[in-house]
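Lab notebook, bench 4. The sequencing result for the construct came back, and we need a structural model before the next group meeting so we can plan mutations. Quick request posted to the team channel:

Model the 3D structure of this chain.
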Amino acid sequence: MGVSKQQAIENKRSIVAAAERLFRERGVAAVGLAELTKAAGFTQGGFYNHFKSKDALVAAVMEKAMEDGASDLLAGIEASKAEEADAMKRYIQWYLSPNHLTNIEAGCPLTAFAGDVRRLGKEARQSYARGLRWNFDQLASLIKGESAPEKRKKAVALFSQMVGSLVLSRAVAEADPALADEILKDGREKLLQAIGA
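Done. Here's the predicted structure in token form:
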């Protein structure tokens, strides 16, 4: 007896979720197909019922990660508006927080995949680029009192500094926790100054 259409969808989601968790934690190249299918609870044959290759899976993971990241950003913006709070200030405070530092599994995918993306397949790279461009647009919309081109430039610079601070902080978090904290704290303070918060 075959698998129902709904079960096939759920199976595919399970594979994508397991892959995303492993890819975020260890990097795409470090995760083999055998480990991935075992983590998802499937055989390699079961994997190929859903994806023609690891590249196809990586593209699906990247698309899902970008969609989830977009949803999270929009939810944060809406929550800030509802509370009449400065959305950009809150985003910077969250992005460069100890909680986000340790939340590689569910944090911003643009940071989580920054080191891997240039070595991935074309579809995954394009998905990442679309997600990054969209993120810049959303952040630019939060900047007040400047022309559209200036808002965009400022959003690109602010977000690039946030990602850089988080990447560097994560890179040294285990080896030198005090340095990791310093990077987050100083990055956060300077970015908040840059937006006048």
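The chain has a mean pLDDT of 93.
Will bring this to the meeting.
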